Amino acid sequence: MPFTRKRLASTLLSTLLVLGLFSAGATAASNSAVTPEPSETLPLNDLRTFAEVLERIKTAYVEPIDDKTLFENAIKGMLSNLDPHSSYLDPDAFRELQESTSGEFGGLGIEVGLEDGVLQVIAPIDDTPAAAAGLEAQDLIIKIDDQSTKGLSLMEAVKKMRGKPGTSIRLSIVRDARKPFDVTLKRAIIKSRSVKSELLEEGYGFIRVSQFQVNTGAEVAKALSSLKKENKGKALNGLVLDLRNNPGGVLQAAVEVSDHFLSSGLIVYTKGRLANAELSFSATAENASGNVPLVVLINGGSASASEIVAGALQDHKRAVVMGTDSFGKGSVQTVLPLNNDRALKLTTALYYTPNGRSIQAQGIVPDIIVEQAKISQEDTVLGLKEADLAGHLGNSSANKRKVSKDKAPRMQDQDYQINQAINLLKGLNVLSSSKAK
User: Fold this and answer.
1) CB atoms within 10 A of CB 98
2) Which of these is catalytic: 329, 331, 345, 415?
3) Which residues span the domain enclosing 17?
4) Rounded-to-integer distance, Cα 241 and Cα 207, Å
5) How far apart (Å, rounded) are the C-alpha atoms in residues 354 and 247?
6) Residues 226, 356: one domain?
7) Band of the pLDDT at 408, cuts 50, 70, 90?
8) In the predicted model, is pLDDT for residue 172 greater than 90?
9) DSSP conformation letters of 35-94
10) How many CB atoms lie within 10 A of CB 169?
11) Is 243 helix (H, G, I), strand (E, B) or coil?
12) CA-derived radius of gyration, the chain
């Protein structure tokens, strides 16, 4: 069928209507209308090209395809080519996003992103199928149930990993340029507990924040109070705040957690093109931590809200940041509702630490670099002791100093980075005591 002016005009009209919907949705979400400058008139030549491509696809593509599908695909492409974090949310994806920030949702418990078009694990969430299967930050997911992830948008990949609780899914993983391996997981209802705490030993507490949900700030305040009670009502000598493999979450929660450790000053600010994208958040006078000496642990799986907290505490010299470089996601995504239960997740601003550092693509560099120790085969061989050798001579006094098998190993004995954090805190306390004398 020839490409007629009438059909071109009809297609252009449809295009302009779609553009009008974008404008209306953004204005409704931001509550501030953006008046185009005279130079921002619609590019008619580009619209004609778009309309011509649309028409050619409809008439020449090997299979019939309807207008709705073409427009949806055009919108998805428009968003996915902006940056890895902007996307078009259909009703199901929009609902799942809302569920994930409330702390209960279905899936694998894994935060993913696109790195050069490859699906990458940002971080597994604690106590989920992904964490139990041993998935790690920076793992590459090259296949989902034997289907290549190449060319999939982020939302398409997430949709494939979601499913009915109890059903199985197989992921093909590449880690550290090694040979790919498969991991089979069972989907589950993810009830993520964002904060856990423990008294590692007398005077030294540990708080783990696995992701930032709407109630995380309040949970950290409860954890600080609980640790003081566990320490027989005495103030702590030191605290480890563990943000490793924390993919981020709600901005306000990150501000609240930072505020528990600061008494004044800027926490984070954002810069964007819209007036309402220019935000800043400062600490209040109340300080739930009581200025306890603090070490913050981060790694390559610490992203977004985690980096806001680590960056604020580092800039204010409130904490020693330890571990490895963080992920570097310093962009702000705003969810802009559209009609028909759809929405845009659009990057609208960048985060900056109190000292004006942009987190984007840079991340937070620790004050003290500490890699997570790994036991290799060589370590195991060289680490043999006399007692490990077959036919070794016994020790008659061994029973006198036998350690109970029922006693669980301490967390810091199993985790090198936590162990180093506790050692640093103890050293700081010794130094502080010496100065006081």
Assistant:
1) 13
2) 329
3) 7-89
4) 5
5) 21
6) yes
7) low
8) yes
9) PPPGGG---HHHHHHHHHHHHHHHHHSSS---HHHHHHHHHHHHHHTT-TT-EEE-HHHH
10) 18
11) coil
12) 26
Domain count within the chain: 3
> Same domain, yes or no, for 183 and 208?
no
Instruction: Indicate if the pLDDT at residue 378 is higher than 50.
Output: no
- Indicate the SS3 state at residue 234: coil
In a domain, 118, yes or no: yes
Residue with tokens 């060319």: 151
The secondary structure element, H or E, covering residue 226 is helix 216-230
Contact 422, 206 (CB under 8 A): no
Q: Give the C-alpha separation, 126 to 242, whole Å.
A: 12
CB atoms within 10 A of CB 12: 17
Same domain flag for 187 and 200: no
Is the pTM higher than 0.85? The answer reads: no
DSSP secondary structure letter of residue 249: B
Q: Is 336 left (phi over 0), alpha (psi -120 to 50) or beta?
A: beta
Instruction: Please state the rounded mean pLDDT for residues 387-409.
Output: 45
Task: Judge contact between 26 and 334, C-beta under 8 A.
Answer: no
Name residue 119's beta-bridge partners.
114, 141
Q: 96: left (phi > 0), else alpha (psi -120 to 50), else beta?
A: alpha
SS3 content of the chain, % helix, strand, coil (to 5): 35, 25, 40
Q: Which among 148, 172, 191 is the end of a domain? A: 191
Alpha helix stretches (DSSP H) within 265-414: 305-315, 377-382, 411-414
Q: Which of 304, 306, 326, 331 is catalytic?
A: 304
pLDDT of the residue at 278: 92
Neighbours of 50 (CB within 10 A): 15
Could you tell me if 241 and 296 lie in one domain? yes
Q: At what angle do helices 154-161 and 91-102 cross, to 10 degrees?
A: 70
**pLDDT tens digit string along 192-232?**
789 999 999 999 999 999 999 999 999 999 999 999 999 99
Q: Give the CA dihedral 426, 428, 433, 435, nearest 10 degrees.
A: 160
Is residue 403 included in any domain, yes or no?
no
Q: Is 329 a catalytic residue?
A: yes
| pLDDT in the model for residue 103 | 62
Query: CATH no. for residue 243?
Result: 3.90.226.10
Q: Same domain, yes or no, for 309 and 348?
A: yes
What sign for the dihedral angle of Cα 28, 330, 247, 198?
negative
Q: Quick one: pLDDT at residue 415?
A: 92
